[in-house]
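haha ok so turns out i had the wrong file open the whole time. this is the CORRECT one, sorry everyone. sequence first:
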Amino acid sequence: MTLGVLIGLFVVWQLWWTDVAAGQEQAQAVADLGWEEPVTVPEPVERTDAPPVLEEPEELTTFATLQVPRWGEDYVQPITQGVGQDVLDHLGVGHYPGTAMPGGVGNHAVAAHRVTYGKPFNRVAELELGDPLVVRTEDTWYVYRVTSTEIVLPHQVEVIAPVPGEPEAVPTERRMTLTTCHPMFSAEERFIVHAELDHWMPVADGTPAALDGGA
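then structure:
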């Protein structure tokens, strides 16, 4: 009976309390950025020239946020340098060190939990081709569009190569990749989402249409 109670408490902790605690930490990480709210303009200009790109920060530095309109208007997750437990179990979305920074040529690759610890990528399977993934740094918006999804084994790390699936290729495009566990409540495989940069905007010039109900 005692064992059963302990197992039950562990399940409650794993499935409920980790979401509560990590969710609070992730919301605080976004608040701690202290960024000004973007202005609203009638027709923000979507730029397709080379965007500004941040230098890669030190481990545990929160440098950007991710918004995914498909997952709701209130979905905002911090993006923090690193993919260890100190990031993924507390701060939400982690950036794979050595991969491109937002807007950079190559592959801006990130990881997050699909269940527990705030489950930032819980609804990853709902994404459709063309869906926007909106990354914001303090001064710049980067709007990526989903181009493909796939399920791979954990050792297939070529999905986060500068050219996904072609680790020896030289990148020329600006891409983004989301990685998370698959299936739900298992780590046997990985669910992968690939995207390409569609446009970018200075934060000072307004809010992307994708966040204002636009396509």
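The radius of gyration is 18 Å.
again sry for the mixup
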